Every structure is written in structure tokens, then in C-alpha cells.
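Second attempt. The first submission of Oxidoreductase had a stray character pasted in from the spreadsheet, which I only caught after the job came back as garbage. Lesson logged: always re-copy from the clean sequence file. Corrected sequence (367 aa) follows.
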Amino acid sequence: MGLIGGGPGSFIGPVHRIAAELDGEIALVAGAFSRDAAKSEQAGRGYGIDPSRAYPSVEAMLAAEAQREDGIQFVTIASPNFHHLPAARAAIAAGIAVMSDKPMTATLAEARELAASLDATPVPYGLTYTYSGYPLVREMRERIAAGAIGPVRKVVVEYNQGWLAGAGEGKQAEWRLDPARSGEGGCIADIGVHAFHLAEFVTGLTVNRINADLGTVVPGRLLDDDCQMFLRFEGGARGLLMASQVMTGEGNDLALRIYGENGGYRWSQENPNRLEWLRGDGGMEIVRAGDPGLSEVARRGTRLPGGHPEGLLESLANLYRDFAMELRGQSGSLVPGAGDGLRGMALVAAAVAASRDERGWVDFTVC
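This time the job returned cleanly.
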């Protein structure tokens, strides 16, 4: 694995490294950690890699690694949104597989360009919609697909954070609130796409209409920091998506509720090893990570016996383990791909435009 981004002071770079290496199937061996050569070298020392493999640019890394017998097999892109397209495009042109942070790119036009690059030069491509790696999220998906709660009627997904509730903006906030580096979406692109992907991933349904209301709560910001939207799914199911980064006091409260004709499920990322199964007779059962009756997909994503907490790192590690399967040509991977990325970017573009123009309900398509 070669890492793009994740330089000194990065939060997400070390997270990717730990998750990728958790199962001993992947090793971080190279990186273009910063556009500043000195900082890239400093980061390389921190990651403990060969100093000669800490590069000053993506292009330098790809060129040098191509000459090595033990060169990188894929890159992880953990840089700001505006850099996703050029980094991915360079890797794809070199025939190198790509794992990228979400969103896919900064804009829908860039996402289409990236998808075209993949069509022209097919390589494995994955997106770290991390929450799809949780065992009980995958268990819900399996059960709903098997008809356990009947046809889905209602979907409610919330992603509540409070770290941008104040006017102060640190390093992590700076680029996310800058249209030149983040793109046209703020909160909707940062965490809203996570909620959107989770709703479609678990239900197996696609959204075909939206009614979006995006807002900028803290004065002076150029991008949205709060959003909510009504959803209509294929088949008639109704949904509600709420994502906010100005809900004072909230941490990382991603929660999903799905209701079908015969029952429902409730799951929260802050308590990820517990799934509530609401039965049609009014009763409720608790499903726990590690329970012996879980599906093969959920068991495959669980490393510890029941009662031993697993969390975000393990969830991301499940995506990396699936990606390693793809690189070996094995089946069964659930890593989100370019199609998921295009849908996320289409949602950002549609929601921003519809909210800005107060259009109300609009058709949602990816074209």
C-alpha cells in the first residue's frame, strides 16, 4: 500500500494505516504524504517506512515504485477532496488500484471524469464508506434482503456532530469549509454522503426523489454546515436524512432506523455492537455482534468473541480486507465502488442546487 496524504498532524492517515494493517494482509510501504518534501519525509519516519520511499509527489511515488520488484499494488487517497481526482487519475493511468476516502471527488463533473478513467483503464477501485463495514450493518443488509421485516416502508438516517457548532475553525475544518478544496458541498459532502450510502446499502433500495434543505448556520461560512432532506425510494418507501455538524455537544452520532411491513431495525454507530430488532408483535430482541446465529457476512467481519467491543478501526479494516480479496481476484467483497461514489456526488450536486433554488421535490438520477 502507498498512502497519499496523511502527513504530519493528519487524523485520517494513521487511521487508514492501522485499519489496513490490522489483519496482516496489507503493509504500508510508501507514501506521498505531503506536497512539502520535508513534511513527507517527516511523516515517513513517523510511519516507520524506508526513508527512500517517502516521496514529494504522487507522480514521483508512482514512477519510482514502478521500478521496484516489491513496488506498491494500490494507493489509498487520504487527502482533501480537490486532490482525489488527480491522485486517482494518476494511479489509474499507472495501472495501480485505488482506495479513496469519500467523497469520490470534489464535484460531480470530476466524478464522471474519474469513472470514465476507470472504464478506459479498469483497476480495482474502492471508497471508504467506513460504516458499511460494521458487522451488524452487514447483518441488517442480509436480513432485509432475505425478507426478514418484509417490504421496507420507512428509512430514517441521522448523522449528528457538534464539532463545527462554534465559530472557531481548526486545521481539520479549514479545508472542509473552503469551496476551492472541498467542492460545492460542506456537511452534505463530508458526512451526508455517509448517511445516504448507508441507507441505500442496508435497504438495497435506491433513492429516486429528494426534497432538500441545506443551511449555513454559523455566519460567514461559504458551505452548508447543516442539512436535512426527505427521500423517496424505489418501490415507494419514504425516508428522512438528517446530517449536521452544528448540533452542539454531539460527537459522531450516526444512527439508522428501518421499518418494514413485519418489523424494524435500529442501530447506532456510537453503540455499534447492538442491533435492536423490533418485531411485528410489539416485542423487541437484541442482536449482538459475535452472536453465533449471525450471517456468514457478519461473522466474517467480527474478530473477537461476543461481548468484546469492536469499532471504527475494525469496520474500516473490513473494507481493507475485502479490498485485498478484490486484488487477489476473489469474490465476496462489499467495498463500495465507483457507482456508489457517483451516487454520492450526484446527491451533493442535486441537494445543493435544489435547496438553493427552493425547488422542493426533484427527481434524483445519476447520468
